[in-house]
Model the fold of this input.
Amino acid sequence: MMEKESLQAPLELLLVGGAVEAGIFKALHQQTLGALELAQNLKADRRAVWTVAEALVSLDYLERIEGNKYRLSSRAEEMFYRPDSVNYDGFAFMHSYGLIKSWIKLSQVIQSGRPARDNRSTAERRYFIEAMSRRAKDGAKAIAQFCLTGLPPEARVLDIGGGPLVHARAFAALGAAVTVLDLPEVAAMAQSSLAPDENIHLVAGDFTVGLPEGPFHLAFLGSICHIYGEKENRLLFKQVSAVLVPGGRIAAVDFVRDRHPFAAVFAVNMLVNTETGGTWTWEEYVTWLTDAGFKDLELKEVSDRHIITALRG
Done:
């Protein structure tokens, strides 16, 4: 049901997101600057910088000291730059800010059928990874336990598109040997955060070109299927079947259309951000997986997430 409050503009997100992009928080991290100094630092307009800075003061992201100088508030410092704080969120919210840029072009997408933007910048990919990591963290352990149930104690797991490493680490913590496949730029970011003693192997690649050689006991697809359409998902399922051991398991976490209340709306997000993505019905998953040689299909809910599982025939 529509609530008129839901139609109000997300002004705080737009304000803070714009300030991040302009470099305001970065410039004021560990130093104080007046409006003119800050504008010079950013090579920006003084009036615009002052207006935005004052708005950020009113929302407790900045503090005004010594009359006319600005610094990060303790709240912003903890939220953006202190991972040890319970209030830390990093810049994960910038992924939502980026989505607004795509959604605001929905009318154009409706006319053209083309996504609003082609490629993410390096910063946008970093924000995406950070956002996905934080969203997946709460349910990762339960999902890993569910997916590994009945598999060998040291199961070999292929995590497709698992660059954020949240699920990979949950699988590894349960004794699995994990191979993560993700795009080269994402794999490079993930590699920098990987500890030498973690039983996780990163592979840079694209599943539309090929998958790492198996055999694997489990192939995990965490929020992958909605990025692609029928053609790509059918190809992916066939490739997964080829690298699984006989009786090996595929597990896909995603919104299932007609089963999840947000699936239809989320499909619009895929419309504005991808070439062929969307959300798919249980019947479509059954057809695609069966055609790829899978059997014993099930749809379960774990930690408020839909998980589609099937076994290689």
In short: Residues 10-85 form a domain with the Arc Repressor Mutant, subunit A fold (CATH 1.10.10.10). The chain has two domains: 10-85, 135-312. The two ends are 43 Å apart (CA to CA).
